[in-house]
């Protein structure tokens, strides 16, 4: 792998997680090898590289959480552990010979559209290069959030976020405080519970929990997947169709209110103590916040060394957390499972469009994009997993693959026209955003009676797609030139006439 940056490439990709590697694979499959992948870390994997906390695993069946164009018949479990997903991505690098295109330790510091030359100028931590297309594949779950709790700076114990887990910090026998009850906490709490001396879970809002039903993949099934690829494909398609049906509930909250009966029955089966069960019973419609899929989270909260605290945190002292009811909870380790900067993409503050404004300035706290992928005023910028491409029911890779095809369609169009760049027509983009907002207004995420990370600072749902992945793929998978403004090549870059 070279560490040298080329002066200019056709496509620059920022990020070497699923999105960035998927883009690179599809470029190569389409006969394009004039690209480079910039990765600030020293390995591929994105969230699966950064998140190494105990118990980390996929929330979607592994057959769906892998590229359709890079199948893996060897998943060890129905829901594969994080290390196995990371190994899969490393295998993709080898299988598709991506190593020469990777530049580790190259953080994108600034990306600015050069209007005169109609190309992107990217300043990285290791030099500068230009590119015709800029594919931002940094992901929505890359920058952790730790809340500004009063007194946190004076805490003398260990503080860490689930996405920055310190494997060298032994938890055996420790008094551990956990802040947050989202998907990450639901995985690491059961994993560390048997080890710690005492675990205090500071819960602001209880989660709806359903059983996962995870199990090992039998050797017979794995052999079948290897020898009969069609069997694997059929099961993947069956899972896709089954999970697509779940989207109906998010679009029609009354359906999920019926489904709550199942979740409440599961809660009653697992949590026998009435007082604890009361604290763990949500007061909003299921689906408004992310539903937790777990076989052991609720079970772990019933064990003798675990305490669930619902009074809000008032302050952090040198060796304890004090809650609003005046109770003092001695802890020597604080672990935050408090999510990420999803609606305030950090890279947005460093990407400047045609008029010199950054994405963050244009969005003003509420990200908007045409098809969740392109933004008016930012030619040849393609956002992987951009605004309103998130899901609550199935694999986001199904959405991502449609975006990859959109980028390839744009490249083919530019080559066929001999043009420099495309950007979405502002009226078309506005119409798309209005359509998405209107559809979201009736969903459980907007009407379910909760405040979630799906909503931005303005209260708008800037994260989720209000429909099926099939509908998204039909809408986004094909590049439609009529929705875009085409910018011709500058005269200085046109080929000379003989």
Question: Can you put this structure into words, describing what you see?
Answer:
The protein is an alpha/beta fold and 498 residues long. The chain folds into 2 domains: 289 residues, FAD/NAD(P)-binding domain (3-Layer(bba) Sandwich), CATH 3.50.50; 185 residues, FAD/NAD(P)-binding domain (3-Layer(bba) Sandwich), CATH 3.50.50. It is built from 14 helices and 20 strands. Strands 1, 2, 3, 4, 5, 6, 17 and 18 form an 8-stranded mixed beta sheet that branches. It has a 5-stranded parallel beta sheet with strand order 7-16-8-9-12, with no helix packed on it. Strands 13-14-15 form a 3-stranded antiparallel beta sheet, with no helix packed on it. Strand 13 and strand 14 form a beta hairpin. The relative contact order is 0.14.
Describe how the helices and strands are arranged.
Elements lengths: L7 E7 L3 H12 L5 E5 L7 H4 L31 H14 L6 E3 L3 E7 L4 E6 L2 E10 L21 E4 L13 E5 L3 H10 L5 E5 L6 E2 L8 H9 L1 H23 L1 H18 L3 H6 L12 E2 L3 H5 L4 E4 L3 E4 L3 E4 L4 E3 L2 E4 L14 E2 L6 H5 L17 E3 L13 H21 L1 E6 L1 H15 L3 H4 L21 H8 L7 E5 L10
Helix pairs in contact: 1-11, 5-6, 6-7, 11-14
Keywords:
single chain, 498 residues, alpha/beta, FAD/NAD(P)-binding domain, eight-stranded mixed β-sheet, five-stranded parallel β-sheet
Summarize the structure.
Helix content is 31%, strand content 18%. It has helices at 18-29, 47-50, 82-95, 183-192, 219-227, 229-251, 253-270, 274-279, 297-301, 359-363, 397-417, 426-440, 444-447, 469-476, and strands spanning 8-14, 35-39, 102-104, 108-114, 119-124, 127-136, 158-161, 175-179, 198-202, 209-210, 292-293, 306-309, 313-316, 320-323, 328-330, 333-336, 351-352, 381-383, 419-424, 484-488.
């Amino acid at each position: 792998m070279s560490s040298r940056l080329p002066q200019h490439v056709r496509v620059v990709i920022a990020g070497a997680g699923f999105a960035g590697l998927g883009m690179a694979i599809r470029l190569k499959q389409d006969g394009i090898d004039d690209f480079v992948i910039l990765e600030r870390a020293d390995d591929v994997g994105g969230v699966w590289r950064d998140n190494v906390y105990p118990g980390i695993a996929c929330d979607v069946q592994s057959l769906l959480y892998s590229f359709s164009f890079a199948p893996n018949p060897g998943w060890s479990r129905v829901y594969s552990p994080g290390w196995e997903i990371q190994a899969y991505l490393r295998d993709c690098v080898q299988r598709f010979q991506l190593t020469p295109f990777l530049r580790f330790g190259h953080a994108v510091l600034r990306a600015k559209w050069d209007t005169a030359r109609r190309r992107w100028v990217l300043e990285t931590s290791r030099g500068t290069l230009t590119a015709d297309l800029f594919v931002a594949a940094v992901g929505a779950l890359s920058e952790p959030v730790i809340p500004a709790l009063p007194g946190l700076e004076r805490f003398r114990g260990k503080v860490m976020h689930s996405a920055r887990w310190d494997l060298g910090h032994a938890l055996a026998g420790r008094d551990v405080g956990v802040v947050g009850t989202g998907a990450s906490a639901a995985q690491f709490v059961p994993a560390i519970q048997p080890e710690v001396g005492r675990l205090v879970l500071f819960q602001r809002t209880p989660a709806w929990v359903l059983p996962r039903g995870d199990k090992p993949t039998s050797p017979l099934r794995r052999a079948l997947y290897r020898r009969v690829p069609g069997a694997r494909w059929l099961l993947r398609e069956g899972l896709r169709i089954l999970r697509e049906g779940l989207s109906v509930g998010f679009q029609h909250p009354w359906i999920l209110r019926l489904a709550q009966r199942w979740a409440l029955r599961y809660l009653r089966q697992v949590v026998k103590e009435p007082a604890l069960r009361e604290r763990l019973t949500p007061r909003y419609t299921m689906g408004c916040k992310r539903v937790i899929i777990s076989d052991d989270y609720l079970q772990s909260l019933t064990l003798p060394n675990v305490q669930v605290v619902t009074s809000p945190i008032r302050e952090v002292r040198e060796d304890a957390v004090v809650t609003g009811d005046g109770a003092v909870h001695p802890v020597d380790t604080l672990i935050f499972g408090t999510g990420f900067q999803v609606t305030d993409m950090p890279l947005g503050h460093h990407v400047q469009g045609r008029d010199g404004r950054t994405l963050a300035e244009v969005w003003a706290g509420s990200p908007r994009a045409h098809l969740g992928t392109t933004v008016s005023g930012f030619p040849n910028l393609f956002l992987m997993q951009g605004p309103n491409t998130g899901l609550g029911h199935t694999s986001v890779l199904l959405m991502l693959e449609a975006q990859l095809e959109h980028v390839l369609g744009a490249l083919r169009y530019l080559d066929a026209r001999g043009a420099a760049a495309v950007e979405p027509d502002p009226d078309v983009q506005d119409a798309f955003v209005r359509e998405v907002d209107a559809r979201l207004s009736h969903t459980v995420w907007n009407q379910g009676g909760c405040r979630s990370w799906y909503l931005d600072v303005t209260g708008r749902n800037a994260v989720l797609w209000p429909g099926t992945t099939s509908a998204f793929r039909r809408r986004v998978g094909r590049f439609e030139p009529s929705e875009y403004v085409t910018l011709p090549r500058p005269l200085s870059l046109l080929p000379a006439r003989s």
